[in-house]
């Protein structure tokens, strides 16, 4: 992403622009989730269903990303050990 190049410039203003742009996109992506998830469940199960689905999706998504990254990249040393 082009704004990530601003992080290496050393300028505090450009760093602030890059972080602001990243957080705006993050908010635009995850903002509607708060309205969408509760609507998917009946009123009796609304908050439990929304909480479980949000947290389980984060856990499963993070797990999948870990394994896909592990397959596509060479092994890296952990804390300097091979």
Structure description:
The protein is mostly helical and 82 residues long. 65% of the residues lie in helices and 0% in strands. The chain has helices at 12-30, 33-39, 46-72.
| CA gyration radius, whole angstroms | 19 Å
- For the record, give the distance between the C-alpha atoms at the N and C termini, rounded to a whole number: 31 Å
Which series of helices and strands comes N to C? HHH
- What is the beta-strand fraction? under 5%
Which of globular, elongated, flat, extended, rod-shaped describes the shape?
flat
- Mean of all residue-level pLDDT scores: 78
- The number of helical segments is 3
- Spans of at least 5 consecutive residues with low confidence: none
Topology, number of strands: 0
The main β sheet shows up as: none
How helix-rich are the residues, as a percent range?
A: 55-70%
Task: Look at the helices and sheets and give the structural class.
Answer: mainly alpha
What's the layout of helices and strands?
Blueprint: H1 12-30, H2 33-39, H3 46-72
Offer a quick outline of the entry.
The chain has 82 residues and is mostly helical. It has helices at residues 12-30, 33-39, 46-72. The protein is 65% helix and 0% strand.
Keyword list:
mainly alpha; 65% helix; 3 helices; 82 residues
């Amino acid at each position: 992403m082009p704004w990530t190049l601003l992080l290496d410039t050393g300028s505090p203003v450009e760093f602030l622009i890059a972080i602001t742009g990243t957080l705006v996109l993050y908010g635009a992506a995850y903002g509607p989730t708060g309205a969408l998830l509760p609507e998917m469940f009946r009123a009796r199960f609304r908050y439990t269903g929304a909480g479980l689905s949000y947290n389980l999706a984060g856990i499963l998504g993070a797990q999948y990303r870990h394994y896909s990254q592990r397959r596509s990249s060479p092994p890296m040393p952990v804390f300097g050990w091979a």
